[in-house]
Amino acid sequence: MGTRTKDDAASTPWHAREWDLVIMGAGTTGLSAAAFAGLRHGRVLLVEASPDLGGSLLVAHGQISAAGTKLQKQKGIHDTPEMHYEEALRISKGTIDHDLARLAIFNAAESFDWLCDNGYDVIPECPSLSNAHEPYSVPRYYWGKDWGRSIARVLVAKVQEQVAQGTVTLQLNTRVVGLEQDARGAVTGIETEEEGGVRRKVRTRNLLLASGGYAANPAMFERMVGVPLYARAAYRFNQGAGIDLGVAAGGFVRGRDKYLSNFGWLLQDDEFPSPIIGRVNTYPNERPVWEIYVNSNARRFIREDEPSVDQREHTLLRQPNLRYWVVFDQAIFDQAPPMVYGWTREQMAAAFNTQFPFTRADSLEDLARAIGIDPAGLAATVAGYNAGRASGEDYFGREHMPAPIAQAPFYAIRQQGASVTSTAGIAVDGSLRVIRKDRSPVPGLYAAGEILGSGQLQGDAFVGGMMAMPCLVFGRMLGEKLIPL
């Protein structure tokens, strides 16, 4: 189609041109694709529903993982993509999409090194093993000083360079609301809607759906995985529009069966999705646990010092409403290390009976009534724990039991399991082409990023760094592939 110059761009309205590549979404994947497609002097249109570039990187932690990086070698760490891949299989128990995982992992180091070469401010403590999720055995986990925004700064700068050179055109505050297809189903264009309701049709040879997931859309979230959207933490423009477009074009959704919740947030209220106000430290390797955890049936459901993050998360998945309470007494409150990240003991004391997740009462029965569980059941559960502690034989095999729960007043902190990412997503093949149920590709239509869903790249586990890193890798690969030299 030829090389487009600045003069061409200035003389022809964006919607009247024919594009080599239209990218829907200017987050991790879309920015990466645009940056590398622009380097190849293609005609690239980047369409973003919001007024900003960066997508989920503007609110996410943005941890990434890569094996065989220059940084690892500088620190004397031996690691390879094959080792990374085997660990992803181990952590996910083999439930990841093997082809997509290999594609991401075996190309991750190149993308990570590129980030660093272009100003990524990875913190000195990295690479890390990570303990937010089931840990790796080799340090290959990274994040920037400003979390996701650290990645966004690098990508946005590179895209702006291409905008200045005329190889990438930005169209912000614009939604993609429809696709144009020919008789054989090939995507030939898009329909957009700008602020004010102006609609336009745009021609393109290729379309990349990179608009993120549905984790800010409560109705779609529950429709996808059968679980309410409990926590409000996702980027607000992650409404699932790209998934609906992919399905309308002939694609389908997979990964619904791989939903997994984390082990709990402190939410502001019961109006779901609710803002997150904090997090309890439930990592026994960081803070040995003194308390017990009880579910909505007033029963303990796990060994509280269970060392496996994955085991804790999967056990919570089987509890009613993904909900439990951290229960303890005055002696534990006075003696145990504070448990809410960033909160002092004094801040915690002030929260009880004044903030939604924090309850205090003079008896276990009153505590149970206040939080809405069975009073006799809670009393029996605490008595059982105390007896097991006294005998040294805990029912769940718990080892760390420093004190009984016996001294009034008694306390409960409500924990709500939730996911802030999208599990299910558009099905693609090993070339990231959107596929139909018969596995044939929809010509001209590609998808990458959270729109694929975490289930394809992490399986039914949380594999450290395997949300943002595949976005970077796949965006780069498609940007280079779809604009031939």
Q: What spatial order of strands do you see in the largest sheet?
A: 6-3-2-10-21-20
Under the CATH scheme, the architecture of the largest domain is 3-Layer(bba) Sandwich
Which fold name corresponds to the CATH topology of the largest domain? FAD/NAD(P)-binding domain
The number of helical elements comes to 16
Structure, described:
This protein has two domains: 1-260 and 421-485, 3-Layer(bba) Sandwich (FAD/NAD(P)-binding domain), CATH 3.50.50.60; 266-416, Flavocytochrome C3, Chain A, domain 1. It has 16 helices and 21 strands. It has a six-stranded mixed sheet. It has helices spanning 6-11, 28-39, 70-74, 81-92, 98-105, 108-117, 148-165, 218-225, 241-248, 309-316, 330-335, 345-351, 364-371, 375-391, 454-458, 468-481; strands at 18-19, 21-24, 44-47, 64-65, 141-142, 168-171, 174-181, 187-194, 199-204, 207-209, 231-232, 253-254, 266-267, 274-278, 292-295, 323-329, 358-361, 410-416, 425-426, 433-435, 441-447. Helices cover 31% and strands 18% of the residues. With 485 residues, it is of the alpha/beta class.
